[in-house]
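To illustrate the input format used throughout this study, we show a single complete record. The first block contains the structure-token representation of the backbone; no residue identities are included at this stage. The design step must infer an amino acid for every position from geometry alone.
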């Protein structure tokens, strides 16, 4: 991996956008997060010549030229596009509204800023001296280039980006994977979760209404997200992990899973997409869980259903131990409901079983993605189910 501190003048950025050398669309987790007030504040600072944080770019070969994927700083660059718009005679973005699918963002294109005058001003209302200085405004950048002959550098790039923060929101590892990987397994899993629709130069993700989304949407981590695209993204990441476990029957640390996808991309290889048999097994499992949620409101509100750690253990135990084959659906459902009731203190059980439940809970409190602790939780989960 090679990275260098660099810079890009604002009018150069506009030219890159117009030449399709800047990739603002796919693979970003945060989408259109900022409101207009935050964008106005940023552009006021830029017009007044104040510095902004560096933009992280992943440079990738695209035919006879380079393209730049924005790994961190999308909101800032997007705000510049909005402000520049297409009204100024010589400094403008071609079809700026095409970069925003939703009406509220389209309407924000060409927003005005307060520079202390009698009224707010848009770009076309600024004096020549301000526009001239704005063209020369320097955007600090950090360019990342992967060395195709040194895939071990991928660990370094992941560690680097996990620590990046922008307005208090960390760049997520999965966003990095999607920025660098066009894996067929990732895409086949996404198709189970959402419908992806391009609107000019922007993407909208519409979650599908099926057994996968109806089950995953009950989880606390999903409920707490406001943005539709972010919800689809998070469900996608979770289902990828279950698909990998179904394929290998092995627990893996999520970071290692994502490193594997990036490493495959660097080596120009890809994981096979979900097979029909794998898709069927996942569908049967999530259909079973959905039916259980519908039939029992207490279970749907239980930790097994809403807590990511317990849900992961339940799903991987059912897959790893082939419980849908070894048990009737009704019998397995009753055992899971009993487990949930014991876990939450709604049901009294034997001293021996209570001790195993306590061990399970201790393993669920810290280092929850550690492979050994995941394996131990699965063993105890199966033992408790067998005893019920």
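Output of the design step:
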């Amino acid at each position: 991996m090679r990275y260098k501190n660099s810079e890009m003048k604002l009018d150069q950025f506009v030219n890159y956008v117009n030449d399709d050398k800047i990739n603002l669309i796919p693979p970003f987790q945060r989408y259109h997060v900022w409101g207009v007030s935050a964008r106005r504040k940023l552009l006021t600072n830029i017009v007044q010549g104040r510095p902004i944080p560096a933009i992280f770019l992943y440079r990738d070969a695209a035919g006879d030229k380079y393209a730049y994927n924005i790994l961190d700083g999308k909101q800032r660059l997007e705000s510049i596009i909005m402000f520049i718009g297409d009204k100024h005679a010589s400094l403008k973005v071609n079809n700026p509204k095409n970069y925003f699918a939703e009406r509220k963002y389209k309407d924000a294109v060409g927003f005005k800023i307060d520079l202390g005058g009698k009224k707010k001003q848009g770009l076309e209302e600024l004096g020549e001296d301000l526009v001239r200085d704005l063209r020369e405004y320097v955007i600090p950048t950090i360019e990342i280039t992967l060395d195709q002959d040194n895939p071990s550098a991928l660990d370094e790039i992941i560690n680097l980006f996990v620590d990046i923060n922008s307005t208090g929101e960390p760049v997520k590892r999965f966003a990095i994977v999607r920025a660098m990987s066009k894996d067929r397994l990732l895409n086949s899993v996404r198709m189970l979760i959402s419908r992806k629709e391009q609107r000019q130069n922007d993407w909208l993700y519409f979650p599908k209404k099926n057994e996968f989304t109806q089950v995953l949407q009950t989880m606390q981590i999903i409920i707490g997200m406001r943005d539709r695209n972010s919800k689809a993204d998070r469900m996608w990441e979770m289902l990828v992990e279950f698909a990998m476990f179904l394929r290998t029957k092995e627990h893996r640390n999520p970071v290692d899973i994502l490193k594997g996808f990036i490493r495959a991309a660097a080596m120009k290889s890809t994981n096979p997409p979900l097979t029909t048999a794998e898709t069927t097994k996942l569908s049967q499992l999530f259909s079973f869980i959905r039916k259980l949620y519908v039939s029992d409101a207490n279970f749907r509100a239980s930790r097994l259903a809403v807590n990511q750690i317990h849900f992961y253990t339940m799903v991987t135990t059912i897959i790893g131990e082939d419980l849908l084959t070894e048990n009737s659906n009704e019998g397995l459902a009753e055992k899971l409901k009993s487990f949930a009731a014991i876990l939450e203190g709604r049901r009294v059980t034997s001293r021996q079983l209570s001790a195993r439940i306590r061990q399970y809970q201790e393993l669920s409190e810290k280092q929850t993605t550690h492979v050994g602790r995941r394996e131990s939780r699965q063993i105890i989960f199966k033992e408790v189910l067998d005893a019920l």
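Structural context for interpreting the output: The chain has 20 helices and nine strands. The first strand starts at residue 2 and ends at 9.
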